[in-house]
Protein backbone atom coordinates (compact mmCIF):
# COMPACT_ATOMS: atom_id res chain seq x y z
CA UNK A 1 0.00 0.00 0.00
CA UNK A 2 1.27 3.42 -0.92
CA UNK A 3 2.39 5.51 2.05
CA UNK A 4 2.34 2.56 4.46
CA UNK A 5 5.60 2.49 6.41
CA UNK A 6 5.46 -1.27 6.97
CA UNK A 7 4.71 -1.99 3.30
CA UNK A 8 7.77 0.16 2.47
CA UNK A 9 9.90 -1.86 4.90
CA UNK A 10 8.58 -5.12 3.43
CA UNK A 11 9.34 -3.86 -0.10
CA UNK A 12 12.86 -2.80 1.00
CA UNK A 13 12.19 0.88 0.24
CA UNK A 14 12.84 1.72 3.90
CA UNK A 15 15.80 -0.33 5.18
CA UNK A 16 15.14 -2.36 8.33
CA UNK A 17 17.11 -5.49 9.22
CA UNK A 18 14.91 -8.58 9.25
CA UNK A 19 15.49 -10.90 12.17
CA UNK A 20 13.18 -13.41 10.52
CA UNK A 21 11.45 -13.56 7.16
CA UNK A 22 9.39 -16.06 5.25
CA UNK A 23 6.78 -15.83 2.51
CA UNK A 24 4.10 -14.52 4.92
CA UNK A 25 5.79 -12.41 7.63
CA UNK A 26 8.82 -10.42 8.73
CA UNK A 27 10.15 -9.77 12.23
CA UNK A 28 12.03 -6.50 12.84
CA UNK A 29 13.10 -4.43 15.83
CA UNK A 30 10.79 -1.59 16.80
CA UNK A 31 12.45 1.74 16.00
CA UNK A 32 11.36 3.18 19.38
CA UNK A 33 11.71 0.26 21.79
CA UNK A 34 9.33 0.32 24.78
CA UNK A 35 11.27 -2.48 26.54
CA UNK A 36 14.82 -3.82 26.51
CA UNK A 37 13.75 -6.03 23.60
CA UNK A 38 10.92 -4.89 21.37
CA UNK A 39 10.10 -6.62 18.09
CA UNK A 40 7.34 -6.34 15.54
CA UNK A 41 5.96 -9.38 13.73
CA UNK A 42 4.42 -7.98 10.54
CA UNK A 43 2.34 -9.83 7.93
CA UNK A 44 3.52 -9.12 4.37
CA UNK A 45 -0.10 -8.70 3.31
CA UNK A 46 -1.40 -5.20 4.00
CA UNK A 47 -4.50 -5.05 6.15
CA UNK A 48 -5.17 -2.62 8.94
CA UNK A 49 -6.83 -4.59 11.67
CA UNK A 50 -8.93 -7.56 12.79
CA UNK A 51 -11.96 -5.77 11.35
CA UNK A 52 -10.69 -6.79 7.88
CA UNK A 53 -10.15 -10.42 8.82
CA UNK A 54 -11.05 -13.17 6.38
CA UNK A 55 -9.94 -16.77 6.08
CA UNK A 56 -6.68 -15.95 4.30
CA UNK A 57 -5.71 -13.24 6.78
CA UNK A 58 -6.68 -15.48 9.70
CA UNK A 59 -4.22 -18.06 8.33
CA UNK A 60 -1.49 -15.39 8.34
CA UNK A 61 -2.23 -14.50 11.97
CA UNK A 62 -2.21 -18.19 12.85
CA UNK A 63 1.18 -18.43 11.15
CA UNK A 64 2.45 -15.53 13.29
CA UNK A 65 1.36 -17.30 16.47
CA UNK A 66 3.09 -20.50 15.37
CA UNK A 67 6.32 -18.70 14.51
CA UNK A 68 6.51 -16.41 17.57
CA UNK A 69 7.13 -19.20 20.12
CA UNK A 70 9.47 -20.95 17.69
CA UNK A 71 11.57 -17.76 17.38
CA UNK A 72 11.35 -16.65 21.02
CA UNK A 73 14.63 -18.26 22.08
CA UNK A 74 16.74 -16.77 19.31
CA UNK A 75 15.14 -13.36 19.88
CA UNK A 76 16.22 -13.46 23.56
CA UNK A 77 12.64 -13.91 24.79
CA UNK A 78 13.16 -17.32 26.39
CA UNK A 79 12.24 -16.02 29.85
CA UNK A 80 8.88 -14.72 28.70
CA UNK A 81 7.49 -11.83 26.76
CA UNK A 82 4.43 -9.68 26.29
CA UNK A 83 2.32 -9.74 23.12
CA UNK A 84 0.44 -6.57 22.22
CA UNK A 85 -1.79 -5.89 19.22
CA UNK A 86 -3.08 -2.34 19.15
CA UNK A 87 -6.30 -1.89 17.18
CA UNK A 88 -7.58 1.43 15.91
CA UNK A 89 -7.38 4.87 17.41
CA UNK A 90 -8.60 4.02 20.91
CA UNK A 91 -6.28 1.02 20.94
CA UNK A 92 -3.29 3.26 20.29
CA UNK A 93 -2.58 1.92 16.80
CA UNK A 94 -0.37 4.40 14.94
CA UNK A 95 0.54 2.30 11.88
CA UNK A 96 -2.56 0.99 10.08
CA UNK A 97 -0.87 -2.23 8.95
CA UNK A 98 -1.51 -5.21 11.23
CA UNK A 99 1.46 -6.01 13.47
CA UNK A 100 2.16 -7.87 16.67
CA UNK A 101 4.42 -6.30 19.30
CA UNK A 102 6.73 -8.62 21.23
CA UNK A 103 8.27 -7.06 24.34
CA UNK A 104 10.72 -8.64 26.75
CA UNK A 105 14.33 -8.97 27.78
CA UNK A 106 13.43 -7.74 31.27
CA UNK A 107 10.61 -8.03 33.80
CA UNK A 108 7.87 -5.79 32.46
CA UNK A 109 5.73 -3.68 34.73
CA UNK A 110 2.04 -2.98 34.37
CA UNK A 111 1.11 -0.77 31.45
P1 LIG B 1 1.31 0.79 16.89
O1 LIG B 1 1.32 2.05 17.72
O2 LIG B 1 0.67 1.02 15.54
O3 LIG B 1 0.75 -0.40 17.61
O4 LIG B 1 2.82 0.43 16.66
C1 LIG B 1 3.58 0.95 15.63
C2 LIG B 1 5.02 0.72 16.01
O5 LIG B 1 5.82 0.84 14.86
C3 LIG B 1 5.55 1.73 17.04
O6 LIG B 1 5.99 1.04 18.21
C4 LIG B 1 6.69 2.43 16.30
O7 LIG B 1 7.79 2.70 17.14
C5 LIG B 1 7.03 1.43 15.21
N1 LIG B 1 7.56 2.03 13.99
C6 LIG B 1 7.04 3.10 13.32
N2 LIG B 1 7.77 3.37 12.23
C7 LIG B 1 8.77 2.45 12.20
C8 LIG B 1 9.86 2.23 11.30
O8 LIG B 1 10.07 2.92 10.31
N3 LIG B 1 10.69 1.18 11.59
C9 LIG B 1 10.49 0.38 12.69
N4 LIG B 1 11.37 -0.62 12.87
N5 LIG B 1 9.47 0.56 13.56
C10 LIG B 1 8.63 1.59 13.32
ZN1 LIG C 1 1.02 -1.79 4.71
Task: Write a concise keyword list for the protein shown above.
alpha+beta; binds guanosine-5'-monophosphate; binds zinc ion; globular; 111 residues; HIT family, subunit A; single chain; 2 helices
Description:
The protein is of the alpha+beta class and 111 residues long. The protein has one domain (5-104): 2-Layer Sandwich (HIT family, subunit A). The protein contains 2 helices and 5 strands. Strands 1-2-3-5-4 form a 5-stranded antiparallel β-sheet, covered by helices on one side. A hairpin with a 7-residue loop joins strand 2 (25-29) and strand 3 (37-43). Residues 1, 4, 6-7, 46, 97 line the site of zinc ion.
Percent in helix: 10-25%
CATH superfamily: HIT-like
Secondary-structure element pattern, one letter each: HEEEHEE
Global shape: globular
* Small molecules in complex: guanosine-5'-monophosphate, zinc ion
Question: How can the largest sheet be summarized?
Answer: 5 strands, antiparallel
Whole-number count of domains? 1
Give the N-terminus to C-terminus distance in angstroms: 31 Å
Taking pLDDT < 50 over at least 5 consecutive residues as the criterion, the unreliable ranges are none
User: What is the level-2 CATH architecture name?
Assistant: 2-Layer Sandwich
Structural class: alpha+beta
Give the secondary structure arrangement, pairings included.
Blueprint: H1 5-11, E1 20-21, E2 25-29, E3 37-43, H2 55-71, E4 81-84, E5 100-104
Antiparallel strand pairs: 1-2, 2-3, 3-5, 4-5
The chain binds guanosine-5'-monophosphate and zinc ion.
Guanosine-5'-monophosphate binds at residues 5, 14, 16, 28-32, 40, 86, 92-95.
